[in-house]
Design a protein that fits this description.
alpha+beta; Nucleoside Triphosphate Pyrophosphohydrolase
């Protein structure tokens, strides 16, 4: 779970971002900039980054502060789940990534699965909505993330790597490879097997 200092820094950043979005008075805008700087200093001290670099990240976020959306596709074949090996860390995860503006969540997950694995899929069921901060993902992130997991059905294509993935394989629940816990946790994989095996389960959410 995230430490309190990170929660405070995120809340201060969100407060400053929202204030800078709506404040018209120069005095108020200056105070919100100061709040943003305090949040950046907190993150920089704890992470070892430069305050200026954190401020640069913060300044890219515009308008009202809301969580980012990460989509993941649970694709099964012969009782095994599709995983992709990330080039970034050499570990395995469910195919997926950030939802794009202009796409529905199901469209985003279908696109991400195809791009990362080569398989064309149809999202059949929203299985889970996770608040990343409530689960032991590493490393911690400076922004808030919701993770949407869809059970998907293969409609075509074939296994194919991408600029982000170096292997594409199906695994049984008892023989999983080393997972990239930045993006997926063992208990989340186990939950996807439950949803694959039990049609009557309702969507899990935090």
């Amino acid at each position: 779970m995230k430490p309190k200092w990170l929660d405070w820094a995120k809340r201060l950043q969100a407060l400053s971002q929202n204030g800078l979005t709506y404040a018209k008075d120069p005095f108020d805008q200056e105070r919100y900039e100061q709040i943003r700087h305090i949040a950046a200093e907190m993150l920089a001290v704890k992470s070892g980054a430069k305050t200026e670099d954190v401020l640069d990240l913060f300044s890219r976020e515009k308008d009202y502060a809301t969580p980012k959306v990460d989509v993941r596709g649970a694709v099964f074949k012969d009782g095994k789940i599709l995983l992709v090996k990330e080039r970034s860390d050499g570990k395995w995860t469910l195919p997926g990534g950030w939802a794009d503006v202009g796409e529905s969540p199901s469209e985003s997950v279908e696109r991400e699965v195809q791009e990362e694995s080569g398989f064309h899929v149809k999202a059949k069921r929203l299985a889970a909505v996770y608040d990343r901060d409530k689960h032991p993902h590493k490393p911690l992130m400076h922004y808030h993330i919701y993770k949407l997991f869809f059970v998907c059905e293969i409609t075509g294509g074939r296994a194919k790597t991408s600029s982000e993935t170096e292997q594409v394989e199906f695994f049984s629940e008892s023989d999983l490879p080393e997972l990239s816990i930045t993006k997926i946790l063992p208990k989340q994989i186990a939950k996807m097997f439950e949803y694959y095996q039990q049609d009557e389960l309702t969507t899990y959410f935090d």
